[in-house]
Write a structure and sequence with these properties.
With 387 residues, this protein is α/β, with parallel strands linked by helices. It has 13 helices and 16 strands.
Amino acid sequence: MFHYHCLNPIAQVGLDGFNANYVKTNTVDNADGILVRSASMHDMDLPDSLLAVARAGAGVNNIPLDKCAEKGIVVFNTPGANANGVKELVIAGMLLASRDIVGGINWAVEDAADENIAKATEKEKKKFAGTEIEGKKLGVIGLGAIGVKVANTAVHLGMEVLGYDPYVSVNAAWNLSRSVKHVFHVDEIFTECDYITVHVPLMDSTKGMINEEAISKMKDGVILLNFARDLLADEKAILAGIEAGKIRRYVTDFPNPTTAGQKGCIVIPHLGASTEESEDNCAVMAVKELKEYLENGNIVNSVNYPNCDMGVPAQAGRIAIAHKNIKNMIGKFSTILGDNGINITDMTNKSRGEYAYSMLDLENPVNEDIVAKLRAIDGVFRVRVVK
């Protein structure tokens, strides 16, 4: 029997994936798994029972990844589950920025009481005239699940698309339209494109990547779109660029005091993945990941441990060990098991940065004495008996 707790409301279609072996709890106490969307976990006391956290979404800046890793808690996210919802809003953002649709709508609302509004429209509409996106150059920085969808859709809309991603995955490359030009330096995006959209994770290496230097390389009248994370951009530099006429519009999905209500900024209240379909997809994927780990020990889409899959346990025993990525750990595990007459029939060991994960299928189940010896090895965070 497994216990799970939801820190945020999770779509019921996802929770329906749990069977009778799962019990929803009202607190995190004694929970084996946590499902979360946007709630911050940084100041939480994580119970010793906690084995995994599944984020129903892509960003995990609300979760203390290293703290979890050092307690042997695997953190999952749901890459791609909300990609279509975000893609559609990015395309909408380009259109809003190109045509001053927002300005036109606001004028109609403000002048709604004017009985001559229909006549006035013909005179006023020239204030909101814009440009079309067909034939323009779009630069996509980051070709993950969302970036690929944005790039492909823009191609179908008649745009010339440049894509930049030094770490593009094989799967993304297969899905990317052959019409997208893959560039090898981000400066090509900055210097050539009329529209630039950012779809990279927030890391030390990407924080503030859209800065004064980058903006200085861009074409006059560029439109910037940020539906990834606000901290990817130096927004004060962006406001200066707008004031100087360098930047035509900045479209962001992250309201904050710097950009909200500012000239040239279209600020959307974090609606990228706020569709019924995206929330359902994220919930379904998060529950599947959590179940696969709790029931079989397999890791899919973790952000702090390596992916690791040995299928459904077929032997008498399976143990999973979360540990530091240091030498001779496998030898120590094997020695303890061998000294206790336990034969290893199959195993896998994967690492991700400082952390590693090992799964071992055994001819016989292990007892608590053996588990205690494995836990006592320096560098081991958690030993879990899966079967």
